[in-house]
Specification:
Blueprint (H helix, E strand, L loop, with lengths): L2 H14 L13 E3 L11 E6 L9 H12 L2 E6 L14 H18 L4 E6 L1 H10 L9 E4 L6 H4 L7 H10 L3 E3 L2 E3 L1 H8 L14 E5 L7 H11 L3 E4 L9 H15 L1
Parallel strand pairs: 2-3, 2-4, 4-5, 5-8, 8-9
Antiparallel strand pairs: 1-3, 6-7
Helix pairs in contact: 1-3, 2-9, 3-4, 6-7
Length: about 260
């Protein structure tokens, strides 16, 4: 049985058997800042999708989750395939999108309030793919430094690891980073997917970018904001990882203002 069928079976069992409470959200590779008993009191539950080579304990959960909880905002973070406790699973875009949907479906099984979405870097790219032609209604959608790297731009990049990935793609070799192996099919689906011609998205997405970010192409974020007339927020002086306390404070305030 493949991984997606297994997850689907867990969701079905969760819907039919609430007594045992052995559901997807109780998996070791999922973290959340609320219990199901607290869910009915939440303004919204936000599903967070982390970036490439990150994990469920990413920036948004480690740094922002406490402030969200204080304001009755639920947060669910999880390991994407090929990451964290799921590092042995195959990493591809479809597997990532299936996981997002499975997490959302389980939340909707017990929570009737608005579900919001957030994604950072590669997670932002995945949510744009997820939202295309998606007929569901969401509370808020917030993307921080979405990675919209285009093949031609990244091929000559010297600041980060994009050019190394593209070398692997061009030579038909898998890319290996920090004990994680990325298949060429995944690289193909990411770098050669024309995201700007796949923006049939009805949600009013909020975009956050960091002024000193060298890990993603901010010009592509500006282009996306202009094409969709989406609101753009700047974190001045911050890099991709928002390491400074003032960066954390600024992003936390943005999330609270957007989600209020």
């Amino acid at each position: 049985m493949n991984e997606h069928k297994t997850i689907g079976k867990i969701i079905k069992q969760c819907k039919n058997d609430t007594k045992e409470n052995k559901c997807l959200l109780d998996s070791s590779w999922v973290v959340k800042n609320f219990s199901k008993d607290e869910a009915s009191k939440l303004k919204t539950i936000m599903v967070a999708v982390h970036g490439f080579s990150s994990s469920r304990n990413s920036f948004v959960f480690a740094k922002i989750s406490p402030a969200l909880k204080e304001n009755n905002i639920g947060l669910v973070c999880f390991d994407l395939p090929g990451h964290g406790l799921r590092k042995n699973e195959k990493l591809n875009v479809k597997a990532c999108l299936d996981t997002i949907k499975d997490i959302e479906d389980e939340i909707r099984a017990f929570y009737s309030g608005p579900i919001s979405l957030t994604g950072a870097s590669f997670g932002g790219f995945l949510l744009l793919r997820y939202l295309e032609n998606n007929k569901r209604t969401y509370g808020k959608v917030v993307l921080r430094a979405p990675a919209l790297e285009e093949y031609d731009v990244c091929k000559y990049d010297t600041l980060e690891n994009w050019s190394e990935m593209i070398k692997c793609l061009d030579s038909g070799k898998n890319y290996i980073r920090e004990n994680m192996e990325v298949e060429t099919s995944m690289l193909e689906d990411y770098f050669k997917f024309d995201i700007f011609n796949h923006l049939n998205i009805k949600e009013d997405v909020k975009l956050i970018y960091c002024s000193e970010d060298i890990s993603v192409n901010n010009n592509n974020i500006f282009k996306l904001a202009k094409l969709k007339n989406w609101q753009l927020f700047k974190v001045k002086g911050a890099d991709h990882f928002c390491r400074r306390e003032q960066d954390i404070g600024r992003i936390t305030k943005l999330f609270l203002d957007i989600l209020k």
